Amino acid sequence: MTTQTSSPQRIPLAGVIGSPVSHSKSPQLHRHWLKTYGIAGYYIPMDISSGDLATVLSTLPNMGFVGVNVTIPHKESVMQIADLITDRASLIGAANTLIFRKDGKIHADNTDGYGFIENLRINAPSWVPSSGPAAVLGAGGAARAVVASLIDAGVPEIRLSNRTRVRAEQLRADFGSRLVIYDWVQAGNMVDDAALLVNTTSLGMVGKGELRVPMDGLRAATVVTDLVYAPLKTALLATAEEAGCVTVDGLGMLLHQAVPAFERWFGKRPEVDRATRAAALR
Ligand code: NAP
């Protein structure tokens, strides 16, 4: 907990903490919204080592920071420092957003699941969560947010496959019997009658390996989304497009997860529109 001295004229500051942070698109995104809405505020990328995390978080509120986004490797460790944790962040076991409250308390939230569902709601309106199983590739931090949001949205069955099976089994232990685990070598079998297919692995991203899960069983009725957004059209999305599927890229999730944070920090709920996408891609 920190003590915050505040003055009504103080310019609100926010930013992203991680290491590295140079790749983050959040500065372009938040700066675009600050400019669009004429808000006198700043958003700053901050490369912070794990050893400095606690000191930095206790100091930022005194410098005028109203909150920060959190990225790798601090998403889990900030949970130990926060005074208040939302249920969804607690369930996921990681936070991507911190709000520095006026009473000095640090509030941790995870908006990745919100961003994931909102991206689908807007860009794949034909997808009805209760209509059938979802197939999820991967069991890392992002998968935890995705699975939590799919359960919350009412998906009846979530098929999950991860290279390291024990990680998928941990998700089943944490999230319950709606999850059905498939071996990584049989991941292709999950897609057959799935209403939704989600790649939460880093495969397909520039500089990473290719996603080699066979997609022979993919039907046009399956909505396919990839959390990877560099490139925007991953090989998975290209294959899905060829199969006639509705596809949704990962950039929308990144944009939508930022909406609740910006609103809490700067008091304005921002729009995610074409200009927002263009700003994030700049
Ligand atoms: P993470 O916790 O490090 O998890 C990485 C996942 O990818 C694990 O399931 C891992 O499997 C799998 N993986 C990595 N290399 C693999 C390989 N060679 N073969 C098979 N599986 C492999 O990372 P994360 O935070 O979940 O992020 C995952 C991806 O989602 C990243 O590309 C990230 O940029 C993206 N993401 C996007 C958004 C968005 O807003 N669009 C938000 C969050 C994350 P193992 O468990 O076997 O290692």
List the helices and strands and how they pair.
Blueprint lengths: L12 E6 L7 H11 L5 E6 L5 H7 L5 E6 L7 H4 L2 E2 L1 H6 L4 E4 L5 E4 L2 H12 L10 E4 L3 H13 L4 E4 L3 H11 L3 E4 L13 E4 L23 E4 L8 H8 L4 E2 L2 H16 L7 H8 L1
Parallel strand pairs: 1-2, 1-3, 4-6, 7-8, 7-10, 8-9, 10-11, 11-12
Antiparallel strand pairs: 3-5, 5-6
Helix pairs in contact: 1-9, 1-10, 5-6, 5-9
Provide keyphrases for this structure.
single chain; alpha/beta; Rossmann fold; 2 domains; 6-stranded mixed β-sheet; 10 helices; 12 strands; 18% strand; globular; binds NADP nicotinamide-adenine-dinucleotide phosphate
What does this structure look like?
By secondary structure, the protein is α/β, with parallel strands linked by helices. The chain has two domains: 13-110 and 257-281, Rossmann fold, CATH 3.40.50; 113-249, NAD(P)-binding Rossmann-like Domain (Rossmann fold, 3-Layer(aba) Sandwich), CATH 3.40.50.720. The chain is 34% helix and 18% strand. It has ten helices and twelve strands. It has helices at 26-36, 53-59, 78-81, 87-92, 112-123, 141-153, 165-175, 235-242, 251-266, 274-281; strands at 13-18, 42-47, 65-70, 84-85, 97-100, 106-109, 134-137, 158-161, 179-182, 196-199, 223-226, 247-248. Helix 5 crosses helix 6 and helix 5 crosses helix 9 (251-266). The two termini are 37 Å apart. The mean pLDDT is 95. The structure holds NADP nicotinamide-adenine-dinucleotide phosphate (NAP). NADP nicotinamide-adenine-dinucleotide phosphate binds next to helix 5, helix 6 and helix 9.
